[in-house]
Design brief:
- The structure holds two protein chains of two kinds.
- By secondary structure, chain A is an alpha/beta fold.
- Chain A has a single domain, classed as Rossmann fold.
- Chain B has a single domain, classed as ABC transporter involved in vitamin B12 uptake, BtuC.
- Chain B has a two-stranded antiparallel ribbon.
- Chain B is globular, with a radius of gyration of 19 Å.
- The chains are: A alpha/beta, B mainly alpha.
Chain lengths: 235, 286
């Protein structure tokens, strides 16, 4: 396994608050790495720091060996990172079609194929192609957000809590889609739903108080009830 | 009938001039979260530079193009050197743009002197058409046509092109646009320059309409433009033209029937909209 993304001792402030106080982890190419931790531990800030939305004040982020932590957000995205934020970031007054068009960096055969693939995965998006993004259900918005991140040939997807606020049936759909996409791209996933995280994830990192405190293969966590109880508050 | 028609034509022409100023304001605010109080200064610079170029070259068309170019150049300078360093800080933006408004107005006096300058339309746009009892002043029709044309062009760009799509998306969620790999600052710059160019176009057109231009004209029109932006909705481009026409018409009719209330009626209109629809008649959510 070769390392695609590496974070080394990342620290991030939001205003006067020292949110990330030493985040280090590695993401292997072709794997799903899950960031776990309680609410407020710093998982979302970690993804936002990787995207340059909350720039790191210390530490190094490398993508394929290239340091990217000083780049502006759009350059980081151009390097091949797709981002699905916690609030989905849908443009509410644009149609599903327009939301996709904004995302497509270059219209060519490849993006057209990727779009067809993702629309087959999420047929609801095809059905509501001309509907405004703001009128979609929570699950459909999540699908659109994932589709937008996937449509370009991104090497890495950062997905923030895709199951949040969704009905169980939608959670299943989103989970299945991520499992399928896993075959084509590397994924960093922030997820509170442990069942989903443990089904999809290959590797985990636990973040606590802004620091990475534990990591390992997902099956280790599945079998370690004490660790789950201590850091995630679940049995 | 004749009176009604003339007041309507007058109101529409004034509305279009306000629209050219307000459209840039609403786009700049919507996309960049910048309340640009210097916008009126760009309007006045368009009036002076355009009138001067027209007088120097004898071509009204070149005067218009020169005014738009001046506005866009000033817009580029202002965005790059004065607005960009204070993105996200509204207090500093207000102070800087208000200061700029004063500087731009005073600079006009330095370059062209403190006295007002007379302006007239080219021969082809002078005079009027007479249809029955109705007299149609050509220059007013010209202003309405230019305003409508600009509206249609900008609306086409916003609705049908990728850059327009990016601008509309940016108005809704700037962070997400950047996360999709788009350099939003380049878009900011472009929108600011286009907004400045439209303001300057309004300025050069207003000279022959009112007969004179003066350094304080920017502030006068900017107040009306801010009222239009509030009524139409802070982020809505179509809202800005409809509200501008509303303000132009109400001003025109009130100035004839109840002259004392002609400015107050716009304030009143704005207050009513703010009470019942705080986001404006066509304001976007969020």
């Amino acid at each position: 396994m070769n390392v695609q993304l590496r974070l080394n001792e990342i620290e991030t402030y939001i205003g006067q608050y020292h949110i990330l106080q030493g985040i280090s982890f590695e993401v292997n190419r072709g794997e799903v790495t899950v960031l776990l931790g309680r609410n407020g531990a710093g998982k979302t800030t970690t993804l936002r720091t990787m995207m340059g939305l909350n720039p790191a004040s210390k530490g190094v982020i490398e993508l394929n060996g290239e340091q990217i932590h000083r780049y502006p957000t759009y350059t980081i995205a151009q390097k091949g990172i797709g981002y699905v934020p916690e609030d989905q970031g849908i443009f509410p007054e644009l149609t599903v079609e327009e939301n996709m068009k904004v995302a497509i960096k270059k219209e060519n055969e490849e993006t057209s194929e990727r779009q067809d693939y993702i629309l087959d995965l999420f047929p609801d998006l095809k059905k509501y192609w001309k509907r405004n993004g703001g009128l979609l259900s929570g699950g459909q918005k999540q699908m659109l957000s994932i589709a937008r991140a996937y449509v370009n040939n991104n090497k890495l997807l950062l997905i923030d809590e895709p199951s949040k606020g969704l009905a169980p049936i939608m959670v299943e759909k989103v989970m299945e889609s991520i499992l399928q996409m896993k075959e084509k791209t590397t994924i960093v996933l922030v997820e509170q739903n442990f069942r989903m995280a443990s089904t999809i994830g290959d590797h985990f990192y636990i973040i606590d108080d802004g620091k990475t405190v534990q990591n390992g293969r997902m099956n280790v966590l599945r079998e370690n009830e004490e660790m789950r109880r201590k850091y995630l508050g679940i049995a | 009938m004749e009176l009604f028609f003339n007041l309507t034509l007058n109101g529409l022409a004034t509305g279009m001039l306000i629209f050219l100023l307000a459209a840039g304001l609403t786009l700049i605010f919507g996309l960049m979260d910048v309340l640009n109080f210097a916008h009126g200064g760009l309007f006045a610079w368009g009036a002076y530079s355009g009138t001067w170029i027209y007088a120097s070259t004898g071509s009204f068309f070149i005067g218009i193009m020169g005014a738009v170019a001046t506005g866009m150049l000033l817009g580029w300078i202002i965005e790059k050197w004065m607005i960009k360093p204070v993105y996200g800080n509204h207090v500093q933006q207000i102070l800087i743009t208000l200061g700029l408004m004063l500087v731009l107005s005073e600079l006009l006096k330095v370059v062209w002197g403190p006295n007002q300058i007379s302006a007239s339309p080219p021969d082809v746009l002078k005079g009027s058409w007479v249809i029955g009892d109705i007299i149609i002043i050509k220059y007013r029709v010209f202003i309405i046509a230019v305003g409508l044309l600009i509206f249609l062009i900008v609306q086409y760009i916003l609705k049908r092109t990728k850059i327009g799509l990016v601008v509309r998306a940016g108005v809704m969620n700037k962070e997400m646009v950047q996360s999709l790999g788009i350099n939003i600052h380049k878009v900011f710059m472009l929108v600011f320059m286009v907004g400045a160019g439209m303001a300057a176009l309004g300025g050069v057109l207003v000279g022959p309409y009112s007969g004179v231009i003066h350094a304080g004209m920017g502030m006068e029109f900017a107040i009306l433009a801010f009222i239009v932006v509030v009524i139409g909705g802070m982020r809505s481009f179509p809202g800005s033209i409809l509200a501008a026409i509303l303000v132009g018409l109400s001003g025109s009719f009130m100035a004839y029937y109840v002259p004392d209330l002609s400015l107050a009626v716009n304030m009143l209109l704005m207050a009513v909209v703010l009470i019942f629809r705080p986001k404006g008649l066509f304001g976007l959510k969020g």
